[in-house]
Amino acid sequence: MKSIKRFFARLSSFATRRAQGERLREEIEEHIALQTAENIRAGLSPVEARRQAILKFGGREAMKEDYRAERGLLFIENSLRDVRIALRMLRKTPGFTIAAVLTLAMAIGANAVVFSVLNGLILRPLNVPHAESLYLIERASDKDTSQSYPDYLYLRDRNHSFDSLAAYTITQVAMYTGAGSSLIWGMESSCNYFDALRIQPYLGRFFNLSDDHGPNSAPYIVLSYAYWHSHFHDDLSVVGRTLQLNKHPFTIIGVAPPQFRGTVVFVSPNFFVPMVNHEQVAGTNDLNDRASRWVFMVVGHLKTGVTPAEATADLNSIGSYLEKTYPKDERQVGFSLARPNLLGDQIAPGVQAFVAGLMLLAGLILLAACANLGSLFAARAADRSRELALRLALGASRTRILRGLFTESLLISLVGGALGLWAGVLFLGWLSEWQPFGNFPMHTPVNPDASVYGLALLLSLVSGFLFGAVPVKQVLRTDPYQVIKGGSSAGVGRRITARDVILAAQIAICAVLVTSSLVALRGLVHAMHSNFGFEPRNSVLVGADLPMAGYSADRVPIMQKRMLDAIAAIPGVESVGLTDALLLNDQTTSDIFTDRTADLRPSSAAASVYTHHVSPEYIQAEGTTLLSGRAFTWHDDKDSPRVAVVNAEFARRIFGSVQNAIGGYYKLPDGTRIEVVGIAEQGKYHSLTEEPQPAMFLPILQWPSNSAWMVVRSSHNPEQLGAAIRGTLHQLDPGLPVVIETRLDEIAGALFPPQVATVALGVLGAMGAMLSITGIFGIAAYSVSKRQRELGIRVALGAQRKEVLQAALGRAFKLLTIGSTAGLLLGLVASKVLALIVYQATPRDPVVLAGVVVAMALMGLLATWIPGRRALSVDPMILLREE
Amino acid sequence: MVLKTLDVLGSLHGYGIARRIEQISGDLLAVNQGTLYPVLLKLEQEGMIASEWGASENNRRARFYRLTNEGRKQLQVETKDWEQTAAMIERFFAAKAEDLS
Fold first, then answer.
1. Record: fold of B2-100
2. pLDDT tier at A16 (50, 70, 90 boundaries)?
3. Per-domain residue ranges for chain B?
4. Which of A98, A528, A543, A568 has CB 3.0 to 4.6 Å from A739, enough for a Cys bridge?
5. Rounded CA gap, A495 and A806, in Å?
6. ipTM
């Protein structure tokens, strides 16, 4: 209580400190006057009386100092003065200041950005109430999140562990508004989706279980806030309006709240439609097909008090029941729980490891920046040793001097941090809006929040203290007498100093970064030129979803043939083929059995293979090489024997070798015997880093498929070609929603992880390199300037250029060598982690090794160029005369 | 001591307080008079005393300090404390070996 009162009294007197000084002066005057009068009365002469009075009063300055300390906020007052002095000092050396601020801005900015991404992707909970109890159900065996709709219903109704289970799947529909049709992405969700997630509508209402009256009974659509905002311009009257989805009327019943973006952090759906209308939305009727696992994800809140382990046991008992009851459709029905944020355990560990790795690297960069600035500050303190010694000699306390130095370093770090954060926020704003895959709504809001700002401030302060602390020992050891007497500090240390160790560590960090970014880059180049099993260049993809345009059943194959013929007739088109599953995109698998197997239960399957239903020209249009046998013809139709083209891995696994496979038979789960007529080369089907996978191609005439992608091979300009294709298809059917993109754009999805890795590592590597350059430059320049006299003497005594250089820069080069070697070794270890993301990431690649060595050598050359020149241009005469 | 002085003499300026302390202590406590002022400031900030400008004996502007109510209370508390402490110390000195046996 008392101390609070004093604090406020001090605060107010701090504000009025000039008036207070006046008051004290007056009081002292008065005191002495009174004492003098008293002394005169006692019989002293006026002069002696005043002298005695002053003596008796004691040290006036010391007392004033005490009084000031009592009176105001000494700390703040002194700090303000320190800041003023520090600003003046920094202004005097603008080069140093700018370099220091920029270095820190870069390092802190990088940290803020990486942390924001970490925050947005991993740390921040989903924007649903009680996100901590929300789990998704995945298959224990392969971490697959998908379920069939009947299985979902069964799980929903029979489990005892979840409040309620919601299901959803990501889907694309053609939305017809007044002007025309556009393809947009959204979600099919179970009717209880919003209730299960406990989300309240922003506008209107959500669909719920009472809307569910069987297939196609709930033609309602809920818009996401963002889509409503951008496409309906916040129109409050949309509720009740009717839209056409795939030519089916759907009524808008509500708008989701702004912060709700579904339950996967990097996908934000544009709309939500009830899953019971799956046939209208997706064009396929597999709502009741137990074997078709198209429901993307099942999520739910655990009941309070139920642990994930208990829930898993509960689900598994349901799973074993399903397995027993439906042996034909179900196998290995074991479940496990995971977090829905990053699609469960399938990709979350990779993403987490990568982002955590980036964070670590960013942290190392900041550390390197601090080490750099620390040695700069130490050099600066050494240059100012005379000034500091003088101040010490005049009675300044060491604490006071250190406070001055720390004020400088903190000023720099705060300004740098603010600048870095500002740049980081701009970048993050862009990153949040970025959609890497066309109109697929994959983007993540990584906007900074309070924790990012907090982290930036904390990092600024910590780094300020960190590099500010480097010269402390130096200052504490300063002996003013020696410094002033002996001129500049004597002797150049020959032993290893802390600064050397820091610099070597920093070079090592940089070398790690350079190594890993080179490995990633090399992997990316490999990936771009690797054999995908198809030729992505000179190829355009045309997606025209027939069910969306109202085609069904028998009309589909007819329309597919008409489209293929029409596109093939466009001048410049070499070949065009049709497939229902794009390579390196969505893959469906099916079980196959050897010809001898009679028991066609999933558990006795010979393999699970990627399945593509394709038109006869497809294999040619994709540029896939046939190793042996033939491709399909238009005669491989419903009336002829069932045939297949399989890939090399399939042939090897089922038939032992490519030669044996031709003419061989195998079985599909429904018992159909299929003859292998051709062997295609091995390709990449799911991801670039996958092991060789078995795959089969079946003729689309024998296995009709609604969804269709047409692969058009042509060396013509893709844009003109695209326009021609669009025109041709428009003539066939004006209402057909068409997507056209080049094949290279399309496989960007598969190349996305290595690209991100390469860019991120490249940027960090460049930062690390810059920091190392400034670090080496700093130490080399410092050593040259300190040893100018010595170098001068050497030159005067006839030293050759080489010897001078060696004397001046030998140390820097030695550090560079040690650091680079250590870094390279560490980088080799770190690349093991990279191999998860990057295609063929092996550091044991002569190009990478040579690249790292050249890069480090170039860096060293760059950094020591100017100091080296300075060392060589030393003129002994001038130097010797100067002293 | 400052508080007691002001309690006895009422409103007083800095010099007066210094003189008074000297007189009462019989000149045993002849510290630098300057040290008084930081103490006065501290007491004022704590609200024990208040000050205002007034005219001194030789008609010059001087700062007069007086005890506040809070100061008076504090004085009572401290007086009591001191009396207790003094009494205790006195008992210690008065105690003889045979009293303890």
1. Arc Repressor Mutant, subunit A (1.10.10)
2. low
3. 2-100
4. A543
5. 17
6. 0.70
